[in-house]
């Protein structure tokens, strides 16, 4: 049964209005947005008030520094769980002192024009000391006994599992049972709840036959994360601890909002500022299966009474195994509907009623209940996922660990199908023994950023920045997971170069609409989850896709000119009835492990009546739909007639197709295809791959891409997923447009001098640095017969002079450095016998004076350039030549143009090299406390950093050369 209540209609109307309000919204030309990204394209950051150890100075410093470096928004999270052995001392949460600091943050954010949001808890998700057991997460529990009548049963009946001394009965029922098969008959069910007294003694005259007595109640879930404790027992602070709310109940959310939401709204009003959004972070509280009005919720969503079938939850069979499995699906589907509507949907309403947006990591991760993740994310103004990083990439140099980014494609698909401009991700989270803190520089983070962008993410919420008083020293006290994007990191002064890269990418990837040829229907079998981006067997390389749930198919899809379209402008050539998360078992296992749910790779053969009726209409209107016919209804409502009706409509649509010898037929204006892959259909229709390169079939993940269309402009983002420089021949499904190559690292934009148009494609060669990336933008019309035969798209370099020998290097004595030293050869600091270099963290300045000879003679042709190539750097470099600042280098290729400032003789080259904090922290643990240079934890939680942690490579590693670009 499809739920069409007033709340759903209101919600979908709001979505439609929001989607139409952002269509075409853009200030300036694409190139302007690339050069100067707007605030909405700059990264946000999780702003941790760790144990609320903050003061006005730390608040002001952070916000001013964020603004200066290119972070446009903060998400304020008050939490504990820091990296050290004991809790930090901070102000009392929600006390007058805390409120004054909160108001100061609001005023400062307004002064600096920084967006500010607030996470509505003293932890990640909705929890607090005011959450009573009645409003906390619950599960259904049962106890049972088999009896044979006629007999009088009169004794104490065991109470089901009870957590925290909290338990309530729902029903006591009796069912006639076939003992050998454990089959019960729902029509024999007798409600004997009145036969049990308050002490749990049951008195009942048992009729003739074998009977199952089933006592059903509910208690708290007892999951380790369903109740938060103050550190060190748990991950919050004194006064922030408490139960997680009941996510199936609007009453529980209203109560939580009344306690905390209204408080921060009022404090914000008093400060004269504005909260941009309220937030609920990742689902890390376990599963739940019941709420007080769950029977009413079940009837509302499913259209029938669950009471006769409660024995199925106790492991018994009702009617037959197929019937019982379908009831379990309905039960799980009701949980996912309650989560989507009663929590995420109601949170959406509460925030909008109070003039704010809402953001959530609404698709997990971790131990989640059955959920329709797309439906959850569709009830967010800021749908969000997350991705994690590792200290070392695999030996092949490729970030192939899909487990670190399992919900990114899911978040992006939700943004596309529900009409959201932003698809956000918590970015660069890390929890690894021996490596979590201050062990990765921006270059190590770049491969993960590039993969996230190709999954469809177009805004990062950096994880994370701990606000701490400057007097706490550097690097300071930290949260237990990284990264740490704060003014305390060694490379903060150079950080704007990295943030500018993210902003340029995000700016273009927020423009226009995502290009996908296929939309995969996930089916209606819970849970409804989206796999990470991978080579889908039925689609193959070179095409991209979205995923949809039943709600979007039913309420947002229509057909125009043979394409399946959504109200905000998204469209697809094909709708593919995949009816599962993925047909690849390995992918399903990874997704299921992530959520601790059973995820099946075999397609479901079920489809609800509303869905198949909508499919019939879409095909009649001109859609192309690919997939097998259903055999039964996906729901029990109306059983068994619903199954007959589904088969009848399927026969009408699929007709005489058998999926083998007869695979395609017209139906109305559209087509139904069964027995062909999406790739076969696209190629037969003359739709070539959108992105291809030489060797793509052999190495399908060597490069990746994402494509957006903005009016008449085509925007491709292309990445090298390997750790080596790669030259490739690429083709893009565009003609009649001049290709341009835009570099998001430098901001340089140039027309491709060499390209070819042929067969509906534009081909060009590109050189991509290790983990390199570029945008290929098509926006200027040209003849479809023209080609570029001019300047190559990339320079070839030859060495003119080597500068690797004999450097003066100045290390800061205030941070344990030896002052000025001479390096005969460039070397890794950690290999030095001198501890002041071996354990050094921070900035060291390399200086060298050299002659070049006749510069002009070395430039024999117009357009040739001289560049300084640093070889390898750990981790950031700022280059000056003859007093001219040449910029910050933070990724490969470590090159900067020096043509306009180099001289024949007496060149003075200075390079500031900045490494990371980990080495100095490790070195300091070998010193008495009074002689240490850093101030941080004496011991790190989970051994994420310790005295035995291997040191991190540091310094200018070279070789340093001057190259001529030909």
From TrEMBL:
Superkingdom of origin: Bacteria
Signal peptide segment: 1-27
UniProt KW Hydrolase keyword: yes
InterPro entries named among the record's database cross-references: Galactose-bd-like_sf
Keywords: Hydrolase, Signal
Pfam families per UniProt: Glyco_hydro_106
NCBIfam families from the UniProt entry: rhamnoside_JR (NF045579)
Record-given protein name: Glycosyl hydrolase
